[in-house]
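During the reporting period the student researcher (J.K.) took over the structure-prediction task from the postdoctoral fellow and processed the backlog of single-chain submissions. One of the processed entries is reproduced below for the supervisory committee.
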Amino acid sequence: MQTAYFIGVDGGGTQCRTRLTNQNGDILAACTGGPANIWSQFDSAMKRVCQLLDETLHAAGFGPREARQTHVVLGLAGGNISRVRVQAQAWPQAYASWQVFSDVEIACPGAHHGQPGAVLITGTGSQGAVWDGQAFRCVGGWGMSLSDQGSGAWLGQQALRLALKAHENLVEHTPLTRALMANFDNEPETLLAWSVQATPAQWGQFAPQIFQAAREQDNHGVALLACCAQEVSALISNLSQNGRYPVAMLGGLALPIHPWLSAEIQAMLVPAGGDALSGALRLARLCA
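J.K. obtained the following structure tokens:
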């Protein structure tokens, strides 16, 4: 029986990671590189992934023969877009098998040790996925203009809209809204010019300030986080399917928003048992 190897790839919007194992699950090599979002930058992302795969094989002392014995699963940001997933699946390669998923999908079997379960990633953006043991169902992940509810970018956008309202005396000013407008010299036109070109990460940079304001009982800070928790709760309820699936919440907002969730919603949550790369490696074995 021919020896088999497995590589998991976790490609996000800020960095890409790989992990190579043998049939016993021993880690033979691991590498880290730049971003790999196939929706926003398809060609550069795929080239970066392939270069990182080459580096991973090289780090293990492997050559073309071992590459042909290696099963690869890629979990890539933007992989939820069917058109680009098909393109990535068709990318020229010389591995034993090659399967493309989204980065949130590979997190599911990783978080639940290969068993059915769900994950909700709440960071700069938000997206969830359910793994029933055979297939995935995803929610969200369509960008902050259409989706990403309950995320850092969404929270920052809601806060700046509120700050602008307060500046125009449509709602009361609080220390939070005053501090937010001060970032733009209290000039709506300055805020407008910034908003036109702001990235999700730039919108999300205000999230820590909002959490701090809520801790200080700022009325708007408290209201914003209550609304954010409501959005997150709706996603968790949908993913859980009335308690059928345990949900692991990941991402930069997962810990700070947790106390704002009701006891009923918190009961649906479980700690993640493993990371996204371990999930990709589990899928690689299934696809072999």
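The committee noted the following: The first strand starts at residue 5 and ends at 11.
J.K. will present the remaining backlog at the next meeting.
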